[in-house]
């Protein structure tokens, strides 16, 4: 199953083993994995919503979102299917900058990430607020392809990559945790690769 990862594996002399979570194999490729079809997105009707436990819901149009400050991060990414890709560069809007547009209620502790095609995934608010968590539209200096989440994907580098949902459309702030799409099918509620939190 993972032969093509091994063929692409980098020389052991160039990899710091402390960067590789247990059970992972390094690849130069970026495999395309998702459930369902790649959605067709029209920027004229696209929006991004911040709702739930907020003082006032916020909706940003395509143009309004792209007026937000731009941030670049460098990170490694780790998929629950056991591949890791090192030295990625993502550019987009830092979540912390986006959340300056909304006032959260004190009871907000979790976030449901909403994406195209009804896909969802859940995160503790503390994980979403880390400084390197990004809403990205660019990878390695190139626009994201639709297969990798264009026009916008969440990037949460410290968790397994299914938490970095593609085609993101909104954040719903919650008082209690609630399973998203894959979590309802047995994936872990948090997904820390260093603890191998693959499944519940």
Largest sheet: 6 strands, mixed
State the CATH architecture.
Alpha-Beta Complex
The total of helices stands at 5
- Let me know the number of strands: 11
- CATH fold-type name: Sulfite Oxidase, Chain A, domain 2
Tell me the domain tally: 1
What proportion of the residues is helical, as a percent range?
10-25%
For CATH, the homologous superfamily is named as: Oxidoreductase, molybdopterin-binding domain
End-to-end separation: 23 Å
Tell me the strand percentage band: 25-35%
Tell me, rounded to a whole number, the average pLDDT.
Answer: 93
* Shape assignment: globular
Radius of gyration: 17 Å
Order of helices and strands: HEEEHEEHEEHEEEEH
Uncertain runs = 1-12
CATH hierarchy, class? Alpha Beta
The helix-and-strand class reads: mainly beta
Task: Tell me about this structure.
With 200 residues, this protein is mainly β. It has a single domain (51-195), classed as Sulfite Oxidase, Chain A, domain 2 (Alpha-Beta Complex), CATH 3.90.420. The chain has helices spanning 3-8, 62-65, 95-98, 125-128, 181-184; strands spanning 25-26, 47-52, 58-61, 71-78, 83-94, 110-115, 120-124, 134-139, 142-143, 153-155, 168-174. Strands 1, 4, 5, 8, 9 and 10 form a 6-stranded mixed β-sheet that branches. A 5-stranded mixed β-sheet has the order 3-2-11-6-7. Strand 4 and strand 5 form a beta hairpin. The model is unreliable at 1-12 (pLDDT under 50).
